């Protein structure tokens, strides 16, 4: 059996994660994948129930998982807490060594009009951002005060080396093009970043490497996104650029993500927030959570074909006109998830009919 830990979290997290789990359950039953699911408290709900955003039992369950699926965490209800829900996410990443955050962004064929950018700009865009997740300014020493404050951005050679290897490896699976994004004209940490990426690049002569400053990359994402295949960058730059990249598909609600370690279970989550104002209304989009579930199958469990099936069903549902409010539609969260599962059923029916036709033809020719 394959053990998947589900962290529904806060706000719309339980709703969107629930639809993703239902899709995985349907796929597991159809293809006998043996997926099992355990739900654990995490984030704000864990603060309410256990006094901490990352209870020891939740962390222990995650350590023993084959993969982890997260809904969303946070909300104003916990703003005054000593430990905010987001701290639990940073702790989980650190405890599991989740240093590599993979954030894909693409424009679905035929759905270019959903993007606020011109069709001719976004058509054919397909980008993977590889974000270093456990270093940089988010984890550096902090000094807070009423008059001055500071955040230390620090990177070691080893941290840059390991994220570079992930990025080059992914580029080999795609179009063999890698863009490293930094601010080497200003920041010392970026100058080390660039030097180390160049050194690692020598081990991947089949991958074309170029470099861009982060401000230029931000502009290129919305003026010429097809110039990118894989982007590798540090923590804060990756956070900002991957959210900007959501305009390519028309909504941040479409995008999933993966966070990986050198070994051990990976974490999969939509990149959107908890949207507490939408919680319980059944109107949030579960597309990002379902896309994360597809990544879980592919990158987390090595079930690449199954991940492709779920992605195809997701895209088919949207192409058929089933769209939530963020895409200008009226479908409810539960309706969208149900439609994705219908598309999965249609794919299996088509596959079975094809196999039956092959068997019949073989019988006739035998």
Write a concise synopsis of the structure shown.
This protein has 366 residues and is α/β, with parallel strands linked by helices.
Walkthrough of the structure:
The structure is a single chain. The chain has 366 residues and is α/β, with parallel strands linked by helices. The protein has two domains: 204 residues, 3-Layer(aba) Sandwich (Isopropylmalate Dehydrogenase); 153 residues, Isopropylmalate Dehydrogenase, CATH 3.40.718.10. Helix content is 45%, strand content 17%. The protein contains twelve helices and twelve strands. The strands form two sheets. It has a ten-stranded mixed beta sheet, with helices on both faces. It has a two-stranded antiparallel ribbon with strand order 6-7. Helix 1 crosses helix 10 and helix 1 packs parallel to helix 12. The chain is globular and about 75 Å long. The protein starts with a strand and ends with a helix. 48% of the residues are buried. The model has no long low-confidence stretch (mean pLDDT 94).
Topology:
Blueprint: E1 2-9, H1 13-31, E2 35-39, H2 44-50, H3 56-63, E3 67-72, H4 85-96, E4 100-106, H5 119-122, E5 126-132, E6 142-143, E7 150-151, H6 157-173, E8 177-182, H7 188-201, E9 208-213, H8 214-223, E10 230-233, H9 235-244, E11 256-260, E12 267-270, H10 287-300, H11 304-319, H12 333-365
Parallel strand pairs: 1-2, 1-3, 3-12, 5-10, 8-9, 8-10
Antiparallel strand pairs: 4-5, 4-11, 6-7, 11-12
Helix pairs in contact: 1-10, 1-12, 6-7, 10-11, 11-12
């Amino acid at each position: 059996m394959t053990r998947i830990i589900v962290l529904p979290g806060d706000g719309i997290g339980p709703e969107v994660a629930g639809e993703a789990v239902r899709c995985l359950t349907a796929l597991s039953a159809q293809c006998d994948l043996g997926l099992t699911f355990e739900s654990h408290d995490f984030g704000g709900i864990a603060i309410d129930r256990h006094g901490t955003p990352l209870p020891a039992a939740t962390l222990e369950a995650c350590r023993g998982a084959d993969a982890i699926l997260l809904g969303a965490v946070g909300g104003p209800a916990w703003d005054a807490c000593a430990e905010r829900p987001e701290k639990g996410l940073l702790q989980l990443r650190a405890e599991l060594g989740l240093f590599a955050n993979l954030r894909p962004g693409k424009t679905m064929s035929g759905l270019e009009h959903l993007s606020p950018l011109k069709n001719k700009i976004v058509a054919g865009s397909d980008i993977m951002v590889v974000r270093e997740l456990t270093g940089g300014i988010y984890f550096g020493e902090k000094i807070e005060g009423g008059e001055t404050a500071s955040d230390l951005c620090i990177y070691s050679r080893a941290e840059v080396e390991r994220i570079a290897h992930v990025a080059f490896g992914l580029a080999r699976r795609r179009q063999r093009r890698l863009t490293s994004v930094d601010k080497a004209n200003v920041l010392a940490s970026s100058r080390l970043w660039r030097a180390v990426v160049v050194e690692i690049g020598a081990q991947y002569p089949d991958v074309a490497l170029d470099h861009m400053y982060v401000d230029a990359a931000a502009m290129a994402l919305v003026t010429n996104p097809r110039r990118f295949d894989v982007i590798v960058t540090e923590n804060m730059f990756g956070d900002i650029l991957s959210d900007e990249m959501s305009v390519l598909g028309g909504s941040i609600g479409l995008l999933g993500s993966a966070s990986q370690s050198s070994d051990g279970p990976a974490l999969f989550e939509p990149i959107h927030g908890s949207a507490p104002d939408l919680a319980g209304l059944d109107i949030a989009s579960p597309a990002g959570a379902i896309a994360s579930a597809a990544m879980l199958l592919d990158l987390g469990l090595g079930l690449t074909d199954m991940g492709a099936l779920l992605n195809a069903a997701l895209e088919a549902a949207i192409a058929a006109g089933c769209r939530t409010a963020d895409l200008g539609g009226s479908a409810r969260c539960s309706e969208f998830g149900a439609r994705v599962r219908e598309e999965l059923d249609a794919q299996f029916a088509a596959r079975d009919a094809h196999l039956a036709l092959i068997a019949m033809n073989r019988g006739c020719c035998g």
